[in-house]
What we know:
Blueprint: H1 10-15, H2 20-25, H3 27-40, E1 52-56, H4 63-72, E2 80-83, E3 96-102, H5 108-118, E4 123-128, H6 131-139, E5 144-146, H7 158-170, H8 178-195, H9 205-213, E6 217-222, H10 227-239, E7 246-249, H11 265-268, E8 271-277, H12 283-298, E9 302-307, H13 313-334, H14 343-354
Parallel strand pairs: 1-2, 1-3, 3-4, 4-5, 6-7, 6-8, 8-9
Helix pairs in contact: 3-7, 3-8, 4-7, 4-10, 8-13, 9-13, 10-13
The structure holds fructose -6-phosphate (F6R).
Amino acid sequence: MTDINLDDFSIYRKLDPEDMLARIKEFPMQCSQAWQSVMKMVLPKNYSNINQLVILGMGGSAIGGDLVRTLVQEEMKIPVIVHRDYGLPAFVDDRTLLIASSYSGNTEETLSGFESALKMGAKKLVITSGGKLEEMAKVNNIPVFKIKYKALPRAALGYSFMPTLGVLQKLGFIQDKSADVAEIIQVLEKLSSKLDEKSPLKANPAKQLAQRLFGCLPVVYGAGIAAEAAHRWKTQFNENAKSWAFYDIFPELNHNAATGYSLPKDIASKIRVVLLRSPTFSKRIKLRYDVTCELLKQSGVAYEFVDSEGKSSLSQIVSLVSIGDYVSYYLALLYKVDPSPIKYIDYLKERLAKG
Ligand code: F6R
């Protein structure tokens, strides 16, 4: 049990001195501002002459690319690949649009891929707040979507997700999403009023879920357009709540995960599976959710559902992301940890920089 009362406002100032909560609440504003800015961006004419999109990024700067990939996969006729590694895949060529996304502009994996791309004819675009990536882009006359919003990379998601989506629309690869963008702002704002700190525990599903996850190992399941939202939940549990967390995706998880539900026993009893749902799921996927829950129940593993909000796929994705951001935030407070610092990531980056 925790002695933290999520309805006591004094804990927010004490445990969250950098105000991560404000960044989470600003997600709708980030999306709207980033969308307006990308719509004003002028892209070179030949950028629509491509046959694949490759997004370079790591962590909080990569997930926006994956969310876009899941959103457009049924509409877009060319592949979208998110590359989270050093260098470039060998299939990158001069008909590739390469988006290098790094909030800091100094992430070595992303810089390594971008440096390789500079020697090639691929069409390039950069999303960053500065750093070496911006410098390299400027020297090479590469268009930059400049993030002016001050936040930790994962807390500036609107500024990597929306520009990528907007670029695809501007280049004519997807239909006009302006109406869906207007919807997400409404959906997210409504959601915030239900999930923010002012909404008391008894009426606040995010605070309640965080309480149920306290002391558990969260495993987040997703499918289709909710697959990468599950990924985001996992990373937010890691980075905000400083907790172990895993995610898995339907239908693939039905071909392996279920066989391991009951062992080791002391771990199985500590797991809580959160299944993210969207009305866009096919009948077969819905059935898979049902049968999987039967198996979880038989194995004594706790589970529950979280449903997306809104009509459009875009709203459903971002609503799931936003709910997860709140839950991971409250879980951090329950664990009495500051959600902002990521000491271990900073340590790794420093050690790696020293060689
Ligand atoms: C930190 C975070 C990290 C970073 C990652 C890459 O809030 O989310 O996952 O996003 O270490 O750094 P950037 O985004 O600066 O390229």
